[in-house]
Amino acid sequence: MDFREWVPCVPAAITGDTLWRVEAYRLGLFASDLCWGDVTKLIRDRRTLGLSDQLYRATGSAGANIAEGYSRGTGKDRARFYEYSLGSARESRDCYFKARHVLGEEVTSQRLDLLAQIVRLLLTMVPQQRTYTIGEGAEPYGATNF
Questions:
Q1: Alpha-carbon dihedral of residues 66, 69, 74, 76, nearest 10 degrees?
Q2: pLDDT tens for each residue of 58-103
Q3: Taking the domains of the chain in order of start, what are their residue ranges?
Q4: pTM for the complete prediction?
């Protein structure tokens, strides 16, 4: 299934939320849906049983942290959760590479490309949310009588 085929399957309760406008979230949710089938295949091989659990948790966490961060009140808070998501997306990418022997090269390549796209988006989103303000109050400097 590709992304365009998948979108109509997403319920209005999700697509109607303003969070749906965040591309990284949409792709993260799509990745976690794809991951369901992938881990189903991985759990059939004892050697990848632990990897399947790690992959499923990491992939699900990528989208979930975007959702949680989006709901935060400050850019600093949002950035923190987007960084968690970035870590999860990279962890998922690592797991997919390790799972390539079971999942095959084509599936692995597609998943790695999708996760790379999520990573790129998050690498843009984090700095946008971080605000570095260095300065002092609005008090003017001046000499005073001592």
A1: -80
A2: 999 999 999 999 999 888 999 999 999 999 999 999 999 999 999 9
A3: 3-129
A4: 0.87
Check if the beta carbon of residue 55 is closer than 8 Å to that of residue 96: yes
Domain 3-129 in this protein, CATH class = mainly alpha
**How far apart are the C-alpha atoms of 63 and 59, rounded to whole Å?**
7
The per-residue pLDDT for range 31-66, each reduced to its tens digit, is: 999 999 999 999 999 999 999 999 999 999 999 999
Contact 26, 4 (CB under 8 A): no
Residue bearing tokens 């790695």: 112
Which pair of tokens denotes residue 75? 């850019």
User: CA-to-CA distance for 51 and 71, rounded, in angstroms?
Assistant: 30
* Planar angle of CA 90, 91, 94, nearest 5 degrees: 90
By three-state DSSP, how is residue 10 classified?
A: coil
Nearest one of 94, 73, 56, 71 to 25, comparing CA atoms: 71
Q: Assign residue 136 a region: left if phi > 0, alpha if psi is -120 to 50, beta otherwise?
A: beta
